[in-house]
């Protein structure tokens, strides 16, 4: 495991915990700690990422806290970081040195510089910006805890509540994304079914239009045939009327010819 990236939280010098790889009896002491001569106190390029918070309870509060109790509280709030390098185990605890006004100014400058170096977005959701501000908040909790442990523990509750709220929002976002994907897939499937139904309806429409055109053609043929038949019937009827009129005129003339000599 290589040392993780730097952190805005101020740590003490790393402590080397050497392991004896030779065979030992079960009663042999396994660990031996020593401090390296050249180590950064504020977490340089070899500063590890803090492990998960401890599940143990914080030490009880008293009206007069000594240095050891303060260190215990700090270790409970910000657990020591561990990593291995070249087969050696290193441990680094959070610093218990009180912060000055200059430390706060330097913290602000470091925050701004790292935001710029890591190209964090100024607005919107940005994991880089969130990580750096979380480290800055942890450093402020460390500084406050050294001066007033109760205030530091209260800030710890605020930090945990914020993280829990963000985790809840993240879970809700992931659920909403999954829900949106399911709805999109359902909509895509529904779209395919709807397109198929539209195609079927269009085919039915074309078939009905073809039937309508056929029926219209039949109607026009029937109307034309009936019109021709009616014209023929009217012509025949007119010819019969003319024939009857001529016949009537002839009979009238003949009748007048018969009646006229009788009168004389």
> What's the end-to-end separation, in Å?
158 Å
Count, helices:
4
> Count the strands?
4
Helix and strand sequence: EEHEEHHH
> Structural class per helix/strand content?
alpha+beta
Biggest sheet descriptor: 4 strands, antiparallel
Query: Any idea what the shape is?
Result: rod-shaped
| Rg measurement, Å | 52 Å
Strand content: 5-15%
Sheet with the most strands: spatial strand order: 2-1-4-3
* Helix percent band: 55-70%
Low-confidence stretches: 20-56
Average pLDDT level: 79
Description:
The protein is built from four helices and four strands, in the order ββαββααα. The radius of gyration is 52 Å and the shape is rod-shaped. Helix content is 62%, strand content 7%. With 264 residues, it is an alpha+beta fold. Residues 20-56 have low confidence and may be disordered. Helix 2 packs antiparallel against helix 3 and helix 3 (127-147) runs antiparallel to helix 4.
């Amino acid at each position: 495991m290589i040392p993780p990236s730097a952190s805005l939280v101020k740590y003490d010098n790393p402590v080397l915990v050497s392991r004896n790889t030779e065979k030992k009896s079960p009663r042999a002491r396994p660990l031996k700690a020593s401090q390296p001569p050249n180590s950064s106190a504020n977490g340089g390029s070899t500063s590890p990422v803090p492990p998960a918070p401890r599940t143990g309870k914080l030490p009880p509060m008293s009206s007069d806290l000594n240095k050891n109790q303060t260190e215990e509280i700090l270790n409970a709030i910000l657990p020591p970081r561990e990593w291995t390098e070249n087969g050696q185990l290193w441990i680094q605890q959070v610093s218990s040195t009180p912060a000055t006004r200059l430390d706060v100014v330097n913290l602000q400058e470091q925050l701004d510089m790292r935001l710029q170096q890591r190209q964090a977005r100024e607005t919107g959701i940005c994991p880089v910006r969130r990580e750096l501000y979380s480290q800055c908040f942890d450093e402020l909790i460390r500084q406050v805890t050294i001066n007033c442990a109760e205030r530091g523990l209260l800030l710890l509750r605020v930090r945990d509540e914020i993280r829990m709220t963000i985790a809840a929002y993240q879970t809700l976002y992931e659920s909403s994304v999954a829900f949106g994907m399911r709805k999109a897939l359902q909509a895509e499937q529904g779209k395919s079914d709807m397109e198929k139904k539209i195609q079927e309806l269009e085919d039915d429409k074309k078939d009905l239009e073809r039937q309508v055109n056929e029926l219209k053609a039949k109607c026009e043929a029937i109307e034309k045939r009936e019109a021709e038949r009616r014209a023929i019937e009217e012509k025949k009827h007119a010819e019969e009327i003319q024939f009857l009129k001529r016949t009537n005129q002839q009979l009238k003339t003949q009748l007048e010819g018969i009646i006229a000599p009788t009168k004389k």
